Amino acid sequence: MTDNFKYGEETSVENTGEKRANFSGGLGYILAVAGSAVGLGNIWRFPYLAAKYGGGMFLLTYLILTLTFGYAMIMSETTIGRMTKRSAIGAFNYFGNSKILKVGGFINAIVPVLIVPYYSVIGGWVVKYLVEYIKGNVDGLAADGYFGSFIGDTKVVFFWFVIFALATFVVILGGVEQGIERVSKIMMPLLIILAIVVALYSVTRPGAMAGVKYFFVPNFHNFSLMTVVAALGQMFYSLSIAMGILYTYGSYLTKDVDVEISTSRVEMVDTGVAVLAGLMVIPAVFAFSGGDPDKLKAGPSLMFITLPKVFESMGAGRIAGIGFFLLVLLAALTSAISLVETSISTFCDELNLSRNKSVILMAVIMVFVGGSSAAGYGIWDFVLIFKMPILDFLDFLTNSIMMPIAALATCYLVVRVITLEKIDDEISYSSAFKRKKLYNIVMRVFAPIFLIVILVSAILNTLGFISL
User: Fold this and answer.
1) I want to staple 21 with a disulfide (CB 3.0 to 4.6 A). Which of 176, 185, 322, 340 is the partner?
2) C-alpha pair distances (Å), 458 with each of 41, 160, 261, 412, 418
3) Could you give the CA distance from residue 241 to residue 328 in angstroms, rounded to a whole number?
4) pLDDT tens across 252-279, in order?
5) Helix 403-412 and helix 225-238: axis angle, to 10°?
6) Share of the chain above pLDDT 90, in %
7) pTM beyond 0.90, yes or no
8) CA dihedral 433, 437, 443, 444 (to 10 degrees)
9) Which of 203, 105, 109 is nearest to 412 (CA)?
């Protein structure tokens, strides 16, 4: 089927009779993809992993992986989306009807459908904390047991989940150019400005410079295999790889957009925000705890338990809390928007539904799956899957199992089905493709190895053989 595809030609593949939407240009695409990539993974996950797995050594490892593996996967998914003008399932099916392609497309498509409901529950937690800081409840949020009590109240958690989900759907109903692109052009610059302000505030706290040194200066004594595994997993989570998002956003690109330059800018924005997130969190916690490693390695609880205690200890804790959680909310919204949009695009393409009907279907899924996730720490706390609450299990299933498999399917599609030569033709239509040699070796050799490492380490971690 690829032989019939003419590079530079626009195609219409919507089965609903609606013309496929497009971004207005490269900037809209860059901001939308950057908005997708810059989410809770950057603001919440990156700092605690960096603190836990070697500070500057983790940062260096992450940067190397992003510029190699991350670059190759973003280029692959975006290029295939632009080439086929289809979301993930349609893009895989475009090149044949084999079971491997069908499974690969399905996994890429189903990941965002499963992620966005529980992601929106966490988004609801962020909204709740922001509102409490606006009200001035600095001491209450820092109190021992507050977070556990809050997420144990299912009705309250569900309410804030609905508020976050409604905000996401309001943008989605505006469409690609008038909704996603317009909001991204406002939110992303605001997010970056806020990140810089909060980071500057953090690094100027007494004792914070020791945390800056820990974060930026690589210490090879802190390096281990787990530094690589953790950095791989974070890069995967952070760059929106294997979620179907880049296939979908790529399908909205016109042929004149330079894919390579756009990818490089997405890398730059995503990495820049991750570094700013590290500067926001690590120096502040370092100063608060006197460099206590247990405080730095608090894990997922860092944002909702440790940081409120840090803010309480500051003279301007209310302002710091508002600034930080507003920043996190913007990041969470831009990512949730991309996840919902990808799911809706799949429904339009594969179920022959109109966009409005697809929005309704996604809203129903959000209520059922998100509601279950919201109840997992409350009235349904007895429901455990592999000893994990519902939200934790969905996070493990999608991020640690399904996404590596989905990315392996992309590697197979690029190398074995489409071929690197035809990918080269598509990219070179509008790009100089300066990193072609790097791209080829990563897709042929390193990406499959990295992905197998992530998958196997996640399974071993769940079985208790290693600790991530």
Assistant:
1) 176
2) 17, 31, 33, 21, 30
3) 20
4) 888 888 889 888 888 888 888 888 888 8
5) 80
6) 40
7) no
8) 150
9) 105
